Amino acid sequence: MSNLTKEYGLIRAVDNVSLDIEPGEFLSxxxxxxxxxxxxxxxxxxxxxxxxxxxxxxEKDVTSVPPFARGIGMVFQSxxxxxxMSVYENIAYPLKLRRMSKSExxxxxxxxxxxxKLPADTFANRLPQQLSxxxxxxxxxxxxxxxxxxxxxxxxxxxxxxxxxxDELKLELLSLQxxxxxxxxxxxxxxxxxxxxSNRAAVMRDGRIEQVADPETLYRxxxxxxxxxxLGEANLIAVERSSEREFRLPDGxxxxxxxxxxxxxxxxxxxxxxxxxxxxxxxxxxxLRGRVQxxxxxxxxxxxxxxxxxxxxxxxxxxxxxRRFERNQMLGLRFATEAAVLVPQNG
Length: 347
Known about the structure:
five-stranded antiparallel β-sheet; 22 strands; globular; alpha+beta
């Protein structure tokens, strides 16, 4: 995508977006509703026409090429299966449009159904309404793959499924992508989904890309306040610059920024602490003390809201039979101050 823009009257849904996606890469377009991610995907698919900018698949300029001639597969959240066609007929439909022989069609459909654990002998003659939600999503997936497209586009395909089924299908999708070396562009607003599936993710906001990176970099080294907040929970603490690389916390302690973070003169910064980076400790080891405001049990962890001189901090603690948390309990807290992660305030 080069300088891709889409306008609806005075509204700019996608604003001058440029992005290179490598062959065999799994890239997620991640962002809240209205960020422009689905509009960008629809332009890649050819269902929306770009106001300006270009789209290339390989060396081919497909900006004005109709969807059926782009060599892409598309999987929608709503499955978009033909209700009057059997499973076999739904999967075979793209091959029929391409005038593939009956024997080749039959071979491809059967192999595709086996690939997603829907054996043809059992499922070929069923109608979509006779399938579960997960089975319908599998049919939609292999229908998009059966003619071996160059690129697979997916628009929040797991959104209508329950958690256990989503987790199961994510693992199947990763296995398929690795086995077939698929190039996938995947739209989601689910941060956990993007972190689990993607080689890289592009975080979008108001039609623009805020940051593109691998999941760990996005989570550990966000470049803006928006990305820090959108990717998981973040404690953001106002700091005051005391030298080029050193910043003072509200309680007077000094933190030094990581050397790989660019620090701009005149820019206000926030210290980012992920909840799991704050450790509960004894008073003698504590950097600060705080009072427990609220407690949420999450199974594998306990989420605490702790009122401190730096504001209310979110802390994740491991459940422990020998330690019970209570509201108004005083806790000692500490965190590493070396190589602090700082993000521009209001960025």
